[in-house]
UniProtKB/TrEMBL annotation, chain A:
Pfam families xrefs: Cullin (PF00888), Cullin_AB (PF26557), Cullin_Nedd8 (PF10557)
Gene that this sequence comes from: Dana\GF15487
Molecular function as annotated in GO: ubiquitin ligase complex scaffold activity; ubiquitin protein ligase binding
This protein's record includes keyword Disulfide bond: no
Sorted UniProt keywords: Acetylation, Isopeptide bond, Nucleus, Phosphoprotein, Ubl conjugation, Ubl conjugation pathway
The protein's name: Cullin-2
Zinc-finger found in the keyword field: no
UniProtKB/TrEMBL annotation, chain B:
Keyword terms of this UniProt record: Acetylation, Cytoplasm, Metal-binding, Nucleus, Transferase, Ubl conjugation pathway, Zinc, Zinc-finger
Family: Belongs to the RING-box family.
Superkingdom in the source lineage: Eukaryota
SUPFAM superfamilies per UniProt: RING/U-box
Keyword flag Signal: no
EC number(s) from the headed UniProt entry: 2.3.2.27, 2.3.2.32
One Pfam family named in its UniProt record: zf-rbx1
Every RING-type domain range: 48-95
Alphabetical GO biological process terms: intracellular signal transduction; proteasome-mediated ubiquitin-dependent protein catabolic process; protein ubiquitination
Pathway participation: Protein modification; protein ubiquitination
Protein's name in the database: RING-box protein 2
Assembly: Catalytic component of multiple cullin-5-RING E3 ubiquitin-protein ligase complexes (ECS complexes, also named CRL5 complexes) composed of CUL5, Elongin BC (ELOB and ELOC), RNF7/RBX2 and a variable SOCS box domain-containing protein as substrate-specific recognition component. Also interacts (with lower preference) with CUL1, CUL2, CUL3, CUL4A and CUL4B; additional evidence is however required to confirm this result in vivo. Interacts with UBE2F. Interacts with CSNK2B, the interaction is not affected by phosphorylation by CK2.
Catalytic activity: S-[NEDD8-protein]-yl-[E2 NEDD8-conjugating enzyme]-L-cysteine + [cullin]-L-lysine = [E2 NEDD8-conjugating enzyme]-L-cysteine + N(6)-[NEDD8-protein]-yl-[cullin]-L-lysine; S-ubiquitinyl-[E2 ubiquitin-conjugating enzyme]-L-cysteine + [acceptor protein]-L-lysine = [E2 ubiquitin-conjugating enzyme]-L-cysteine + N(6)-ubiquitinyl-[acceptor protein]-L-lysine
Amino acid sequence: MSLKPKIVEFVDVWPRLRCIAESVITLTKVERSVWNTSFSDVYTLCVAQPEPMADRLYSETKHFLEQHVQEMLTKKVLTDEDGRPDLLQRYYTTWMEYSQGIKYLHQLYIYLNQQHIKKQKITDTESFYGNLSSDAAEQMEIGELGLDIWRLYMVEYLASELVRHILEGIAADRASNGSLDHHRVQIINGVIHSFVEVQDYKKTGSLKLYQELFEGPMLEASGAYYTDEANKLLQRCSVSEYMQEVIRILEYESRRAQKFLHVSSLPKLRKQCEEKFINDRLGFIYSECSEMVSQERRQDLRNMYIVLKPIPDTLKSELITTFLEHIKSEGLATVSSLKGENIHIAFVENMLKVHQKYQELIADVFENDSLFLSALDKACASVINRRPTERQPCRSAEYVAKYCDTLLKKSKTCEAEIDQKLTNNITIFKYIEDKDVYQKFYSRLLAKRLIHEQSQSMDAEEGMINRLKQACGYEFTNKLHRMFTDISVSTDLNNKFNTHLKDNNVDLGINLSIKVLQAGAWPLGSTQVIPFAVPQEFEKSIKMFEDYYHKLFSGRKLTWLHHMCHGELKLSHLKKSYIVTMQTYQMAIILLFETCDSLSCREIQNTLQLNDETFQKHMQPMIESKLLNASSENLAGETRIELNLDYTNKRTKFKISSALQKETPQEVEHTINSVDEDRKLFLQAAIVRIMKARKVLKHNALIQEVLSLSKVSFTPNIAMIKKCVESLIDKQYIERTANSGDEYSYMA
Amino acid sequence: MADDPDNSVPAEPEKMFTLKRWNCVCFWNWDVECDVCAICRVQVMDSCLRCQADNKRDVMGRQDCVVVWGECNHSFHHCCMSLWVKQNNRCPLCQQEWSIQRMGK
């Protein structure tokens, strides 16, 4: 065959070509050679001389296809002469044939499609910008033309009938619990998809036909069915059963949708389903919510979560609020009635139990949904920060700090367990609003542990400080770190000092351990030096150390805190000798009895320069321990103190309990008051800093910024902020601007 | 007491009470007349304002902001004073020529 254009008569070629086209479209076997001839016929017509006959070929083909489809409609689809069961089946079979045939035909006309029609087609960019003048006379590629003709003459004509049959089919599938036979499903699926395929070639709106023709009615019918079903369920089911049923139906419906529908409809149908079964029935679903939560019926809650999960957050709020209230009331019940010595341990451990329990429940039942986790957080925070009454302060921060103290003090608990408990403790710590109160207590307790060497392990101490640093930042633990450093520097210093003594052949006769602390870094309450005449037994040691210290450091002076020192004294005046641990003042008192057996209180006080309060506080335990006897209960003036020469004790090593180490209520109160003072300073500093940066600021904006600055360590009340603003106005850091009452400006 | 016949204390001249161990605690302060640095208005025991803002610290994790004494016996943060003398080589408190007497360590 030659590719050269030649002169041909259309009527000579067309009947031949038309005949082949008919065979192709009806899927009748066509010989390879015949196919080739027809292929070149198309070519010949398109390039014919003198005038190409492509347009004529196109319109004849179109006419042929129209005829063919109409014929199919009347002969194959509408009649059931060959006993085919129904319309869907016939439509489906015809469509399968036609859709395949048209693809082949498209191939046959490939020259026409590519050379003649593609050229006329608008480019992608043109269609993208939408300047498409929808030219009715526009020619389509043969494949597309064929589909369009099918739509026009077949689908449009049969639409309502087809849809009715499909919906019946789906209804039958629902009625039979999804056991519609496979073949039938395939037919329905094919028919539904033919609505999509017939417009598949379109660049935009290819689903339009499917949506208008089928999807709309389908959703409507399904909605009605769902409402109906929901009504039926409501009549025979409890809430618990209803939810189970709904979950089952949702599952079935989504499988059904996959079986029949185009993928674009799946979410729409699901939404319809949720709407009718869940959104519309929220009242019923929630009707037993509080019972389910309070009895912790996990299976029901789990089902409720599954059922409610897809709906918007606001609709779930009832379940979440109920859940939150439940945790809160359980939390309150477990911590509000606590009493006794170990209240801090019970507080933290009970709270932890509640937290762990619900954390586990949320993981198990609510898939760790963040809405529920934040409800847990809110509930815990509200329990932990609750004030017993408006006037009383919240004591949680104190409890949590004391709990840490109990853990970190020497005990028989193994290290791994302590570590675990400290980590858990952070969970509770994070909920505390008054973190500054916690810090106050913690640092005081830490100071005591360090000074009295009560820590279980320095590693554990450091670990805890690091945890706090992680949770609250460097500022929070700064002072704790300084204390810690002082102790390790002191250990070092002691070693050096002992070596120094050895090198110089000095034997002090006592085992000396000195802690040198940086003043100001330690929360030791009043650091007022109590007057005390140091007994000569100590003096040498003190002098040696001070000399050594001054050689090492310059410009420093040392202040001895005798009320915090303690030591061991060997008593050799009794039948057995004893080693007794006591405080410095007590040692000083006993040492006075080296030379006499009886002294009056006044004499002791004068010799040691002790004031009444200190004297009595330290004398009392010695009388109680029976090491000394007093002639009267009033430990003052001329009351005689005598050495008890008949003293015996089963243990040869013991300790005289001191009043100092116990925390007194005054101390607690003092701590809380000092927190208040610190807060005021913090707030004032924050206000000045903000105002310095902003120059002019409205009252409310200022309050907001202050709140965000203080968030890390505490939540100040607004009245306190206002007071601080007032005092800064008095101090002329800021002033009210002239034109507005609620605006401040910074005064440089 | 030591020669009390009832007491079976050995004859050697041992004291009745012997100190065995002493754990004592003391504070150190800079040996200054005024607790506050007149330049930055912060306690000399704390780091000066700049160091606090920069969070400077030495290897031990301590704040490395020491005190300096002039011949006039006035004391300031060393950081503060070294900035001060760049502008005015006199003690801010007594206007005497500034010369360092000693440094804290």
